[in-house]
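Why do we care about 3D structure at all? Because function follows from shape, and shape follows, mostly, from sequence. That is the central idea of this module. The next example makes it concrete: a single protein chain, its amino acid sequence, and then its structure expressed as tokens.
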Amino acid sequence: MARAQLASKHFEREQAGMSERILLNMYVAETEGDPARPVKLETTPGSVDRDPTNVITGTIRAIGQSDSFANGLILILDGTTLRTWNLSTGTFGTITGTVSGTDRAQMAFTQTELAILSGGSIYVSDGSTVAVAGDADFPSNITSIATLNQRILMTADDGQWHYTEVLDIDNITGLNFYTAEAAPDNLKAVVVLGSIAYLCGDETIEPWYADSSNTNDPFSRSSTVVPYGVRARDGVVVLEDVVVFVDNKNNVRTLSGVSAPKISDAGVVRALKAASADDIMASTYSDDDHTFFLLNTPNRCLTYDFDGAKDWHRRKTNGVEGYDFARIIEQDGRIFGAKRSDSTFVELSRDYATDEQPDVSTLGTDIEREFTAHIPHQKSRKRLGWIFCEGSKGVGLASGDGSDPQIGRRISNDNGNTWSAWDYRDVGAQGVYDERTKWTRNGRGKRPQSVIHFRVIEPVKFDITGVLWGQRS
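And the structure:
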């Protein structure tokens, strides 16, 4: 039998008649030890509630963590309260003081202190208390913060960027600032990669280099300007050895040195155009041998896998068009997330097959997973024969929901313009490893392709290794 082409990316067509590929809550991974099936589709993580007693009562405005601060506890800005969460015990604490504001906040760490940007002002914590910075030389209307060489860097709406003294956040002089010189620009964000601070403006990005030996003039501007602006402050993140950002034309680019190649496609650009700059939020995490960049808007979450397919897939929470967990943080190999605008705090893992589980053994909200397989045609009216779906079998749960998992299939023999009804088949109850998931009577294809659309809404973890079609077997 012939193998259909599994979708390696998610791409939604702009209008009828065009091709599209669906990869929803699944992504491409290598298959080890099976030359006939070199790739597979894996499921994205589910989640378990890490605040089952509802300690967090306000909107989570920021999350952060540093091994050198507050004994490495995760920090959660719950409205105006700065809370800690202990990974080992699952317990919450509170740092004395308040952080005024309701906006989306930022955190940045030195070895000894924490800076929080809230409402245009800097708040400082030593791990026991938190309070607004008292130095009168701080600029007003600060727009973003980052850390370099144990100083907090700040952009402000005065077109300048400022820096604190080393290891002393609440200490800044009136001379601790620079003005963008090569291409004066409205600064949106500052982000640090290695020893370089990137000053991100509306039209350009300026790299500045740190010189720790020069206490009077500790930074110097590069002679080269990156010719792309940044659209959204929270659409800029550091991912391993590159900066990833949404540019001023809604492209997604990676930045290393002064080179900024584009990684977005037309579908990503369309999704970004439909969102306001304030609604764009980016995050990253690593899982197994994959490193993901999540680009989150209220109606779309498009995710780039830097290590697998090196392409985009879509993530979606059941019942909405977007993906709930717009804030993601890692600690000790575990992944935690918070929603865009409420109090939910979860742990993300592929070990959990549903979302917001009350605990690790109780199911939560189902996650809808979809993918397409494609059969190109050079001649019209090609008989498709039988269709088989290969992958994990016998993965059903012992009882209840998920004990008899099924996968749905619908088929389009005219490039995705018209579809058959959904038709469901078993993928194997627990221990039934030889289940043959097949469909007969699939009709004849037409140029340019037949598209087979699969859907699973079951609380089970599974992989897809291939789709076969052709003569009976």
